[in-house]
Design a protein that fits this description.
Oligomer: single chain
Strand order of the largest sheet: 4-5-6-7-8-9-10-11
Radius of gyration: 18 Å
Number of helices: 10
Order of helices and strands: EEEEHEHEHEHEHEHEHHEHH
Helix content: 25-40%
Number of strands: 11
CATH superfamily of the domain at 31-214 and 253-261: NADP-dependent oxidoreductase domain
């Protein structure tokens, strides 16, 4: 595992690393922090100061605490525009790894949508452009490769967030030259362990994880249960940190992208990128503890 310098330590009396853990993008060796930020629903807000101020603080603290990967999509309503506006106001564009998606059919419509994403994000280029849920992926990947050659995007990938699409996703990973794949994975949704995560590693792909909390289902499951005392062995002070460390401890995973609009949740999530990670035995202990609740 790679560790990068320069991030801000957030340990509170625990023996934690000073910097957030990082993982390399296999194609290039560029390192990314293991905890990123999703924007589904959370950044889809209006233009008023009252609506945007909590997100301004989220984005500011995200960078201060060592984050860089922020993931969005045209599917996410106003999220791209909010990310772009706040990033410009906070002068953060050079510190962010911007990931978004194309989510439409047809070559010309895909180009139009990606141009809009660039404008909304106020970006001269996109770090990672992904085909959202494999929609018309053959058409869009041709354009994405052209844009990559032109320097308009740096990496290309495909995404899905539903186990029912895993067979299709596996076929695309096997047949296409990609840099990234994004999929759902958590201690409550482990199907990706059987095929997709090993396949991603075999194909040399960076792996982004959506739904690391199973769309909030994990928190509902443990809501009346105290955090086990043994979680301290992993420097965890919350269930959220334990859930994130389960995800990021898988050797194929590059970065988890939990979404939030609350700064206290953002800070808690970011702590999941510091300190000790579970080994295989501890991973199974975490899984058993959740299965027994």
């Amino acid at each position: 595992m790679m560790i990068a310098a320069g991030a801000m330590g957030i340990g509170r009396g625990t023996a934690m690393a000073e910097t957030m853990m990082q993982r390399p993008i296999p194609r290039t060796g560029e390192s990314l922090p293991v905890i990123g930020l999703g924007t589904w629903q959370t950044f889809d807000v209006g233009p008023t100061a009252a609506e945007r101020e909590p997100l301004r603080q989220v984005l500011s603290d995200f960078i201060k605490l060592g984050g860089s990967v922020i993931d969005s999509s045209p599917m996410y309503g106003r999220s791209e525009g909010v990310v772009g506006d706040l990033s410009a106001e906070l002068n953060l564009h050079k510190k962010l790894f911007l990931a978004t998606k194309v989510w439409t059919s047809g070559r010309e419509e895909g180009i139009r949508q990606m141009e809009q994403s660039l404008a909304k994000l106020r970006a001269s280029h996109i770090d990672l452009m992904q085909v959202h849920n494999l929609v018309d992926y053959r058409t869009h990947l041709v354009t994405l490769r052209q844009w990559k050659e032109q320097g308009r995007i740096r990496y290309i990938g495909v995404t899905h967030s539903n186990e029912s699409a895993y067979d299709d996703l596996a076929k695309v990973i096997q047949s296409e030259e990609l840099d990234f794949v994004q999929l759902n994975y958590s201690v409550a949704e482990r199907a990706a362990e059987r095929r997709l995560l090993p396949l991603g590693a075999e194909r040399g792909l960076a792996v982004l994880i959506n739904r690391p909390f199973a769309a909030g289902g994990l928190f509902r499951r443990v809501s009346i249960h105290p955090l086990p005392a043994w979680a301290a062995e992993l420097d965890c002070t919350s269930w959220g940190q334990l859930f994130l460390k389960f995800v990021t401890s898988h050797p194929a995973v590059t970065c988890a992208i939990p979404a939030t609009s609350k700064v206290q949740h953002l800070r808690d999530n970011m702590r999941g990128g510091f300190g000790r990670l579970p080994d295989a035995k501890m991973r199974e202990r975490i899984a058993r503890s959740i299965a027994n609740i």
